[in-house]
C-alpha cells in the first residue's frame, strides 16, 4: 500500500499542516513531515474533511443496472468526496431479505470505492402489508441497522409501531419516507401557487408533516429511534423541533436540492425537476437552512436517485421522481452554507456516520484514525456537464450551472479512490 504525504493542508478549516497516510491510517500530522517512500500531494489551499457519509443513496442494483450499479454509484460517491453510503432498499428484487442485502453489501466490497452499507426494507416488497425479515437482515453479513421503505411511506400506523418495537432490541432505526398517501394521490408537484397556476395536482406540505407528527409520537411511545428522510417543509421543521425538545429519539435529513431549488422550476415542465418530496418554496428553503445550521435537521443526505433516460426524458406526468446528488452535494453545501467547514463535516460526515453506526467513518483526520478522508479545493469552480458524471444516469438538476468547490482526492482506508479529481479505478 503506497503511503501518501499531503503537505500544507487545512484539516476542517484549521491552520495548514502535513498529513502522512500509511497502512490505512493517518500515521502522523505536523509541519515539515518527510517520507521518502510516499506519494506527495500539495495540499496548499485545500481542506481535508473526514470522508463524507451519505445516509440516503439509491444504487439501483439489483434490477436497474441500466440506471446505476453498485460500482458506478460507488464511483460517483467517491468523486463526490464520500467514503460510505447507505443503499436504499427499493431495488428489484427489493432488499427485504438477508440474501439481497448481503448481495448489495458484497457488490460494494468488490467495487471497493466506498463502504456500501445496505438499508433493509421495513415491509415485504415495500408493499406496506407485513414486516420484512428485519432480524435476519440485522444478523446477516451486511449487519443492517437502518430499515426503510423509502419511495413509499410506511403508512399503516400499526405496522410502523411494530417495526419500531422490533428494531428497538438491537437499537435499529426506522427511516421514514413521510408521505400520507391519501393526501398525495395523483400529486405532480408541491401544492401551492405554482401548481394552481399550472393546473397540476399538488403534494401538500401537510402530507409530510402529518406523518412526521404521528411517527415522532410513535417513536416516543415505543422508545425507539426514528429517522426522517428528506424533510422538505417549514412545518416539518417545527414538528421536529418540538419532538427533539421533548427528547424523542428522532434524527432528520435534508437533501441538497431542497436547500437550493424551488417549485418555480416546475414552470419549465422539465422532468429533471420532478422529485419526491417535491421542490417547495423560498419560505421552506429558509426554514430548512436555519434548521440545518441549528441542528434541528441533523444531516445532509443526497437522495441520489439515478433514472434511465426513458424514465426521465418524457412528459412531466409520466417521469419518475428523483435527481442525481452524489457528485454535486458538497458543492451545493458550500454554496448554501459557505465555507463553514466544521458545520459541513458535522452534517455530512460525523453525524451521518454516528447515526448509521459506521465507526471508522466520520472521524476528523488525526494520528491513528482510519484514513477515510477527502480533499476539497474550495476556490475551484466547475461547470456541471451531465456527460462528465460517473453515474450511469444523467438526471442532474444542476446541468451547466457553475458550482463552487471541487473534490481533489478521496481516500478509503488509506487507498486513494480519487486523485487529481479523477477516479483511480
Ligand atoms: Zn423518499
Q: Would you give an account of this structure?
A:
The model has no long low-confidence stretch (mean pLDDT 98). This protein has 2 domains: 4-47 and 367-423, Urease, subunit C, domain 1 (Roll), CATH 2.30.40.10; 51-356, Metal-dependent hydrolases (TIM Barrel, Alpha-Beta Barrel), CATH 3.20.20.140. Strands 1, 2, 3, 4, 5, 16, 17, 18 and 19 form a 9-stranded mixed beta sheet that branches. Strands 9-10-13-14-15 form a 5-stranded parallel beta sheet. The protein has 12 helices and 19 strands. Helix 1 packs across helix 2. With 425 residues, it is an alpha/beta fold. Helix 7 (234-245) links the parallel strand 13 and strand 14 (250-254). The chain starts with a strand and ends with a strand. The chain has helices spanning 70-79, 98-111, 134-139, 157-168, 193-198, 205-222, 234-245, 256-260, 282-294, 309-312, 329-337, 341-356, and strands spanning 4-11, 17-22, 25-30, 39-42, 47-50, 52-57, 82-87, 115-118, 146-147, 173-176, 189-190, 202-203, 225-228, 250-254, 299-300, 373-383, 402-412, 415-419, 422-423. The chain binds zinc ion (ZN). Residues 150-151, 177, 229-230 line the site of zinc ion.
Amino acid at each position: 500500500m503506497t503511503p501518501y504525504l499531503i503537505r500544507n493542508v487545512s484539516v476542517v478549516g484549521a491552520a495548514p499542516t502535513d498529513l502522512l497516510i500509511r497502512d490505512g491510517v493517518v500515521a502522523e500530522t505536523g509541519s515539515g513531515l518527510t517520507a521518502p517512500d510516499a506519494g506527495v500531494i500539495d495540499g496548499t489551499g485545500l481542506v481535508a474533511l473526514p470522508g463524507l457519509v451519505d445516509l440516503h443513496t439509491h444504487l439501483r442494483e439489483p434490477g436497474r443496472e441500466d440506471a446505476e450499479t453498485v460500482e458506478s454509484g460507488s464511483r460517483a460517491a467517491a468523486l463526490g468526496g464520500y467514503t460510505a453510503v447507505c443503499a436504499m432498499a427499493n431495488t428489484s428484487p427489493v432488499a427485504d431479505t438477508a440474501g439481497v442485502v448481503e448481495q448489495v453489501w458484497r457488490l460494494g466490497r468488490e467495487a471497493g470505492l466506498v463502504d456500501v452499507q445496505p438499508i433493509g426494507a421495513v415491509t415485504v416488497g415495500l408493499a406496506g402489508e407485513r414486516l420484512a425479515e428485519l432480524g435476519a437482515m440485522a444478523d446477516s453479513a451486511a449487519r443492517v441497522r437502518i430499515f426503510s421503505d423509502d419511495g413509499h411511506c410506511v403508512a399503516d400506523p400499526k405496522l410502523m409501531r411494530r417495526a419500531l418495537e422490533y428494531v428497538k432490541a438491537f437499537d435499529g432505526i426506522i427511516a421514514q419516507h413521510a408521505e400520507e398517501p391519501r393526501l398525495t394521490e395523483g400529486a405532480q408537484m408541491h401544492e401551492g401557487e405554482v401548481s394552481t397556476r399550472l393546473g397540476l395536482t399538488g403534494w401538500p406540505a401537510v402530507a409530510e408533516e402529518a406523518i412526521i407528527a404521528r411517527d415522532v409520537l410513535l417513536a416516543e411511545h415505543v422508545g425507539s429511534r426514528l429517522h426522517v428522510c428528506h424533510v422538505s417543509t417549514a412545518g416539518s421543521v417545527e414538528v421536529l423541533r418540538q419532538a427533539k425538545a421533548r427528547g424523542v429519539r428522532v434524527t432528520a435529513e435534508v437533501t441538497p436540492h431542497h436547500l437550493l431549488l424551488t417549485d418555480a422550476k416546475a414552470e419549465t415542465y422539465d422532468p429533471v425537476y420532478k422529485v419526491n418530496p417535491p421542490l417547495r418554496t423560498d419560505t421552506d428553503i429558509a426554514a430548512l437552512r436555519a434548521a440545518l445550521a441549528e441542528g434541528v435537521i441533523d444531516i445532509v443526505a443526497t437522495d441520489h436517485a439515478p433514472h434511465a433516460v426513458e424514465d426521465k426524458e418524457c412528459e412531466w406526468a409520466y417521469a419518475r421522481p428523483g435527481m442525481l446528488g452524489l457528485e454535486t452535494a458538497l458543492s451545493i453545501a458550500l454554496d448554501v452554507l459557505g465555507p463553514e467547514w466544521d458545520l459541513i463535516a458535522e452534517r455530512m460526515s460525523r453525524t451521518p456516520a454516528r447515526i448509521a453506526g459506521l465507526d471508522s467513518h466520520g472521524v476528523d483526520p488525526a494520528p491513528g484514525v482510519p484514513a477515510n478522508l477527502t480533499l476539497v479545493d474550495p476556490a475551484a469552480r466547475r461547470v456541471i456537464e451531465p456527460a462528465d458524471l460517473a453515474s450511469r444516469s444523467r438526471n442532474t438538476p444542476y446541468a451547466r450551472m457553475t458550482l463552487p468547490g471541487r473534490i481533489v482526492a478521496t481516500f478509503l482506508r488509506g487507498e486513494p479512490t480519487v486523485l487529481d479529481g479523477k477516479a483511480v479505478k
